[in-house]
Write a structure and sequence with these properties.
four-stranded antiparallel beta sheet; six-stranded mixed beta sheet; about 240 residues; 10 strands
């Protein structure tokens, strides 16, 4: 389980996270919704060690992550598929995927996981020798997710996986997130598409200006009037 307690993060004089606490239980999909600038990506970057926390605690199966190096955090079983995809445009699809396994030396298992990623994303196998920069936006998102899976994570964190994608592609991405979870990977999802995120989430949190203001099951927040008005485009009469 990932357990965050009273996490505070500041950039200069601006406090991005104001003491947030949340749990991500093993085997579940947990989503964090909120507007741009609410602090969602900051939280993910703090978990992975890319951003230094001011105070608080981030524990993964009882092990404190704050102060650990990024490679130690990845080795502990945590992977991030970043916002904006950030694939290596001048490398092939296959080379991008292999970079995801850079901390691993188990060649036979790496090959097995590569075939698993290809089973999730057949299009990546079809385009394995194509330069990543020539893929469509949806294909690049699939590649970013596949690359993160190649580290064989126990916890997969996804930062805005639907951003800028066509609705049909978004459906595909969310179906894959469900499938990844069914195969035993815990998921922490940051997403502006609140409707889609809440539909697949076991638990959900609303983050507003660095504070968690609501929490509950995905189903509970889907019918919450405040969430409907702020994030689902449904205003009360």
């Amino acid at each position: 389980m990932l357990k965050i307690e009273n996490l505070k993060v500041s950039y200069g004089g601006i406090r991005a996270l104001r003491g947030i606490s949340l749990d991500v239980p093993d085997g579940k999909i947990v989503t964090l919704i909120g507007a741009n600038g609410a602090g969602k990506s900051t939280m993910l970057r703090s978990i992975t060690g890319l951003v230094k926390a001011e105070s608080g605690s981030i524990q993964w199966n009882g092990q404190e992550l704050l102060g650990k190096s990024i490679d130690r955090i990845v080795s502990a079983g945590i992977a991030l598929s970043p916002e904006g995809r950030r694939v290596f445009a001048d490398l092939t699809v296959l080379e991008n995927l292999k970079i995801g396994a850079y901390l691993r030396s188990d060649k036979a298992e790496i090959e097995r996981d590569l075939q698993w990623v290809y089973s999730l994303f057949p299009r990546l196998q079809e385009r394995s020798w194509q330069m990543a920069g020539t893929l469509s936006g949806g294909e690049q998102q699939m590649l970013a997710v596949g690359r993160a899976l190649m580290s064989r994570p126990k916890l997969m964190m996804l930062d805005e996986p639907s951003l800028g994608l066509a609705p049909l592609v978004v459906q595909d991405i969310f179906s894959i997130i469900r499938e990844i979870n069914k195969q035993g990977v815990t998921v922490l999802l940051i997403e502006q598409n609140a409707n889609m995120a809440l539909k697949i989430a076991d638990f959900a949190y609303v983050l507003e200006t660095g504070n968690i203001t609501l929490s509950g099951t995905g189903a509970e927040l889907l019918v919450n009037e405040k969430v409907k008005e702020a994030y689902l485009g449904k205003r009360k009469d």
